[in-house]
């Protein structure tokens, strides 16, 4: 499951252009990205194109009732937080809006301070919703710890041995490997095999957190410590106390947060934002990265002292192309997993299809294989998976990858061609393309612009 990106994007839905431009001026001055819509239809079109964290929604629109748009928003965009705006306050309408999921409402004319405070509250709530939705569903207790990781290859047996040796200690573990290799599964296995198994396992996706809110999310804050801090909040470190804290893709942390994390690891204590009281911390830290952290250190993007603190026990997860013999096992595992969801039984994979699947490079690793099997079960029929059931970018890979075998191509040109190839095969779906490429959507967007690539 892909985890959703978090930004600071606001959509203002109001048919008063003067009001909208004034609101946009104020909010952009707060470092927010603001889009405007004069009608409900325009708002729905914008929501279909990109994710918004907060929608400021007028109750009266030219083409529909604001409450009707609020209902659609709650159904189709559950992570987005709605704040209602009205020039004609009625208590029954306000109550109905709150019942439908609106955070609060503003009555025109309102003070800019009230707007800023309410938007910050809404952004905090949007972030919490995304964090909750990105956390994996609770798994069944697994006394053996490693049962959730499928693999019999020599490469994976080495990984299992390292996990078993690392788990009983409290040493910090650094999991490395390409996107989709199962780093979070390995982190959970270490936790389940450790003395902390009965305590909390708290994962945080470092690529999905807003820099300006990250410190508050990690450490918590006291009431009144900043604009919008209306009550004291417990941070993720407190939630993980006595358990295991997992930093997923830690290379995405800023140098400022890296310095504060280093201090927490060294001193085993922290302070909430706005507080002078130190809180003792008893946690085990596991971190992961799909980026070469030593290269990041040379580039000045990652602290060397933090790297050595994290890599006390380094464990590398091999890419799927290096796990000879594991692909048939993984396919059977995913067939069992998704047969019930798809309401159909599949006996297995034909020898011809298995040969093609085994020969494919799998740039998205195990995650890509999982999504491929799930898609086939949903879209195709038949007792066995046949070559014709496979996505064209897998079954036709030889002809289509011929473009990469030309001599004399620079690395930049190869990257450009490969990204264009993946975008074409995913029909321009950026989230899926980014997952296969092992990068986030923002990075993909930069590369699309850089290379002036065609979408779809």
Q: What are the defining features of this structure?
A:
456 residues, alpha/beta, Rossmann fold, Helicase, Ruva Protein, domain 3, 3 domains, five-stranded parallel beta sheet, globular, disordered N terminus
Kindly describe this structure.
This protein has helices at residues 17-28, 40-49, 66-76, 91-99, 112-134, 154-166, 183-192, 211-219, 236-240, 255-267, 293-298, 304-310, 326-342, 351-359, 365-379, 392-395, 397-400, 411-425, 430-437, 441-451; strands at 9-13, 33-37, 54-58, 81-86, 104-107, 173-176, 201-205, 220-221, 233-234, 244-248, 269-271, 278-280, 284-289, 313-316, 348-349, 384-385. With 456 residues, it is of the alpha/beta class. The chain folds into three domains: 9-134, Rossmann fold; 154-318, 3-Layer(aba) Sandwich (Rossmann fold); 321-451, Orthogonal Bundle (Helicase, Ruva Protein, domain 3). It has a five-stranded parallel beta sheet with strand order 2-1-3-4-5, sandwiched between helices. Strands 7-10-13-6-14 form a five-stranded parallel beta sheet. The two termini are 22 Å apart. The model is unreliable at 1-6, 135-143 and 397-403 (pLDDT under 50).
Secondary structure layout plus pairing:
Blueprint: E1 9-13, H1 17-28, E2 33-37, H2 40-49, E3 54-58, H3 66-76, E4 81-86, H4 91-99, E5 104-107, H5 112-134, H6 154-166, E6 173-176, H7 183-192, E7 201-205, H8 211-219, E8 220-221, E9 233-234, H9 236-240, E10 244-248, H10 255-267, E11 269-271, E12 278-280, E13 284-289, H11 293-298, H12 304-310, E14 313-316, H13 326-342, E15 348-349, H14 351-359, H15 365-379, E16 384-385, H16 392-395, H17 397-400, H18 411-425, H19 430-437, H20 441-451
Parallel strand pairs: 1-2, 1-3, 3-4, 4-5, 6-13, 6-14, 7-10, 10-13, 15-16
Antiparallel strand pairs: 8-9, 11-12
């Amino acid at each position: 499951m892909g985890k959703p990106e978090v930004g600071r994007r606001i959509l203002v839905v109001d048919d008063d252009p003067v009001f909208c431009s004034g609101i946009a001026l104020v909010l952009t001055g707060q470092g927010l990205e603001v889009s405007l819509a004069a009608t409900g239809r325009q708002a729905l079109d914008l929501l279909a194109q990109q994710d918004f964290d907060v929608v400021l929604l007028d109750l009266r629109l030219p083409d529909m009732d604001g409450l009707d748009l609020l209902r659609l928003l709650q159904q189709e965009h559950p992570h987005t937080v709605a704040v209602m705006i009205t020039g004609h306050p009625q208590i029954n309408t306000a109550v109905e809006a709150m019942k439908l999921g609106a955070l609060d409402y503003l009555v025109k004319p309102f003070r800019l301070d009230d707007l800023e405070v309410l938007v910050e509250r809404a952004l905090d709530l949007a972030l919490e919703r995304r964090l909750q939705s990105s956390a994996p569903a609770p798994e069944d207790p697994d006394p053996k710890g490693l049962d959730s990781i499928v693999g019999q290859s020599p490469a994976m047996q080495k990984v299992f041995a390292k996990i078993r040796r690392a788990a009983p200690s409290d040493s910090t573990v650094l999991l490395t490997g390409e996107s989709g290799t199962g780093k979070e599964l390995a982190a959970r296995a270490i936790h389940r095999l450790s003395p902390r198994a009965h305590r909390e396992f708290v994962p945080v996706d470092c690529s999905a957190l807003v820099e300006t809110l990250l410190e508050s999310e990690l450490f918590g804050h006291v009431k009144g410590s900043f604009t919008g801090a209306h009550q004291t909040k417990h941070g993720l470190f407190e939630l993980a106390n006595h358990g295991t804290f997992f930093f997923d893709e830690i290379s995405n942390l800023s140098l400022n947060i890296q310095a504060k994390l280093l201090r927490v690891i060294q001193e085993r204590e922290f302070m909430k934002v706005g507080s002078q009281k130190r809180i003792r911390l008893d946690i085990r830290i596991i971190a992961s990265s799909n980026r070469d952290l030593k290269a990041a250190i040379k580039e000045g993007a990652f602290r060397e002292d933090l790297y050595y603190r994290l890599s006390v026990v380094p464990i590398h997860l091999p890419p799927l192309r290096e796990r000879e013999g594991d692909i048939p096992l993984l396919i059977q595992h995913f067939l069992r997993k998704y047969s019930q969801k798809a309401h159909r039984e599949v006996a297995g994979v034909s020898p011809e299809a298995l040969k093609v699947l085994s020969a494919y490079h799998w740039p998205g690793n195990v995650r890509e294989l999982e999504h491929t099997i799930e898609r086939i079960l949903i879209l195709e029929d038949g007792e066995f998976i046949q070559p014709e059931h496979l996505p064209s970018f897998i079954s036709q890979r030889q002809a289509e990858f011929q473009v990469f075998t030309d001599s004399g191509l620079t690395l930049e040109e190869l990257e450009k061609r490969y990204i264009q190839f993946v975008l074409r095969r995913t029909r321009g779906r950026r989230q899926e393309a980014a997952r296969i490429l092992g990068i986030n959507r923002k990075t993909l967007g930069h590369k699309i612009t850089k290379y002036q690539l065609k979408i779809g």
